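notes to self, project folder thing:

trying the whole complex as one job this time. last attempt i did each chain seperately and stitching them together was a nightmare. two parts in total, labels are on each line so i dont mix them up again. if this works i'll redo the older ones the same way
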Amino acid sequence: MNLLWLIPAFPIAGFLFLALAGTRLSRRAVSIVGAGSVGLSALVSLWIAGQFFVSPPAGYAYTQTIWNWLDVGSLHLPIAFYLDPLSLIMTLVVTCVGFLIHVYSAGYMSEDEDISRFFAYMNLFVASMVTLLLASNLVLLLLGWEGVGLCSYLLIGFWYRDPANGYAGRKAFIVTRVGDTSMLIGLFLLYRHLGTLDIQTLMARAAHQWPVGSPLAVAAGLLLLGGAVGKSAQLPLQTWLPDAMAGPTPTSALIHAATMVTAGVYLIARMHVIYQLAPSAQFTVGVVGAATLTLAGFSALTQPDIKRALAYSTVSQIGYMFLALGVGAWSAAIFHFMTHAFFKALLFLGAGMIIESLHHEQNMFKMGGLRKELPVVFWTFLIAGCALAGVPLVTAGFYSKGLIVWQAEASSAGRWGFWLVAVFGVFLTSAYTFRIIFLTFFGEAKSHVHKRPGLAMTVPCIVLAVLSLVGGFVKTPEFLGNIHLFTDFLHHALPPVAVAHARAMSELASEGWVTLALIVGFAVAYFCYIERPEFTASLTRSALGNALHRFWKSDWGMDWLYDRLLVWPVMWFARVDAGDAVDSIYTGIARLCEWFYQGVRRTETGQIRWYAAAIAFGTLIFVAVVLFL
Amino acid sequence: MATVPMMHALLLAGILFALGLVGLLTRRNILFILMSLEVMLNAAGLAFVAAGARWGQADGQVVFIFILTMAAAEVAVGLALVLRMYHRTKTLDADRASEMKG
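result (full assembly):
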């Protein structure tokens, strides 16, 4: 257990080594260092998890203080790691999935000239993410939070020669910054009123000092939600995530699907006491989740680009997690985080292999028939897709999503509306998932496969595919074995969901509706893209269909709206205000310097005899001054 | 042995220095400029020696030897520069070498 500090230490060491000496190493050595450091950290977290299960520490929580960071007045901030079932599960998923994606990257990036830079950033990301998860106080958490944001920015703009990638990186950074500012204000508020930033002390004091529904708790909850919404790409700050797909595909898999974007879910789960004290803030979390999962689902249905479709699907699935948090189903949210990390990472890795084997073609309408060409990719992608849609009984997604859907209604904070939206979301998920699968793997081949993925890329995918199948068996519904290993373990850190038995519908009925929605979604996708593709084409050509298609494809016009509402006025003001008083002072200084320069320049004639004459004349004046004054 | 009055020696040094300066300012040929510079240096040296003699101190002569050494070094560097300049501009006219004009 006291090896805890090694989990972030290995990736940091890897980052420093690659950043300092990476360019002098061979590609192979860079891959070994890059993937190895995360592998070691995954091993350590597995070892610690084993210890945790066999002999749990007192109170199911273990704190390790490394050293004192800040000690000013009443503010004590140690660099300390806090391990409880919540952070343990998150850390396990981040390091293990991270390791698999690093191995995949060794294959994917093997021909990139900047491979050492890539692995350095990826290692820094894993280190920051683990710091975020293990941090015992909110400032250390914020350090990790900003660290992952920085790595996200660096990796989105990794191929910096294309200005569009740099633009996407800046967009991601600035949009999440909006959320970060709100979170920072939330931290100030918490420190001002509770006098500490240590998370556990903070929770205890909040529960002690604030009554349920206190305005301070609501304000803190909403401010933290602002941070979570920015990082997790939820409404209304979701616009950065689809553009973030400009980065290399392993980055999209690791950062923009499996781990970083779920940091908001972790933050809310970590601060769950605040939300229990502020039911209205918690309800807002649920509303944000429900709204996001539907809107993003529609957007995912219309994307031609495979990575953008998957990105919207990520936004939508994180919407499910927010919905779960919003109804107090804390463990269900973490459960869905875990299964989502498996299958969404796998979907992105599969998409990466497809894109690479088709000369960087990302348009799904130019793919097709890849089922026979890339069998391993097809089967793993199919498994992941089924898990995403939640195909009953065999896939992990069924168990985690089914749990959320049921608890959206059954929880005491649940509502009928939430349940309806969640079931409708299952229909959307199923429709867009099978749309992706049908478009890429079925039909006739439209592009030639020029390259097949190597072992470094297929093996991680197979491991993730197995996890996407069996990862759900740690928590099954009552009527299917009633296993609750996962939730029992998490209940040492997060309160169990309060099921309102009096009015709740049965789990079996809820799962039945989910399955029905899934089948309808599948049927719609099958009809539209296999049975009658010409019907779909004519639908998008009709006036109303075309307008809707464009509206959804542009993410409900959000980017357009933000451009008009925020970007344009700022740009306009910057243009109009270019010559204000402050500006004129600085241009004035520049003018003065130039005028002075123009005057003095004339003395620099290049004529050496003039210089000599000037020296002699100057000496004469000097002597005269000394003698006669 | 009749001693030369210091005033005379200083006057001579002053005249020599002025001559050198006039030569330096009016000549355009860089070789003549260098020669004028030598004249000015030696005028200064003469002033030192005269002053040393007036106070009965050896310092004046010591400084003159320093000036001599420095003048030798200066000529070596100066002539080398003149050669380089001639290579570049094919002329010894100091006014033509005005590429550093501001």
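what i see at first glance: Residues 89 and 98 of chain B are 10 Å apart (CA to CA).
need to look closer tmrw
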